[in-house]
Write a structure and sequence with these properties.
The protein has 9 helices and no strands. By secondary structure, it is an all-alpha fold.
């Protein structure tokens, strides 16, 4: 596993830093609600991703292979949920505007991860590329889960920081509406692989 650690870290950085549903959600949340209020979402996504990798590496992938309809159902239910979140982002007002809007919490962050198509592609890709059947698969899976979760958390903190910084330029309602519309559109666009 040691010889694969460098490539695994590079894979994790590329997959987690590039925009996908979780990145878009963290950026939009921090821009609308602030960095600190986005931290529970980031913690939930990070924990959910680590558990997802462990579950897939220890047998969930076999369940999906045995029952592909379950995977298909999860994929489309997840896409529907993410489309709803995209609408919620696109129509969100500033948290300072006195609305009852709130950022996603820890549990919602976990749920978003489990329905994120990019997360599943990353998970299955990492497990296929960085596990060896002649080694301790459970240990390899744990290392992969730890590296991917750390990269995910770091990436989301970075993108949320970016969202918090650009919030300064979103003080005009028109600018915030345009930003939220663009972030909602990016979230929809990130789902293109699900329907391709």
């Amino acid at each position: 596993m040691n010889d694969l650690l460098g490539p695994l870290v590079l894979f994790a950085a590329v997959m987690c830093l590039t925009p996908g549903p979780n990145v878009v959600l963290a950026t939009a949340s921090a821009a609308n609600f602030g960095f600190r209020r986005t931290l529970p979402q980031i913690a939930g996504v990070t924990a959910g991703f680590g558990v997802q990798v462990l579950a897939a590496g220890l047998g969930l992938a076999g369940l999906f292979q045995a029952e592909p309809r379950l995977h298909t159902a999860l994929k489309y239910a997840g896409a529907a949920y993410l489309l709803w979140l995209a609408w919620r982002i696109a129509t969100a007002a500033s948290a300072k505007a006195g609305t009852r809007a709130r950022p996603l919490g820890f549990v919602e962050g976990v749920l978003v991860t489990w329905v994120n198509p990019k997360g599943w592609v990353t998970t299955i890709g990492a497990l296929a590329a960085f596990t060896r059947l002649d080694g301790d698969v459970a240990l390899q899976t744990a290392v992969i889960a730890l590296v991917l979760a750390a990269a995910c958390g770091g990436s989301l903190l970075l993108w949320a920081g970016f969202g918090a910084v650009i919030a300064r330029w979103l003080t005009r309602p028109g600018a915030r509406r345009a930003f939220n519309g663009a972030m909602g559109g990016l979230l929809v666009l990130s789902l293109a692989p699900v329907f391709a």
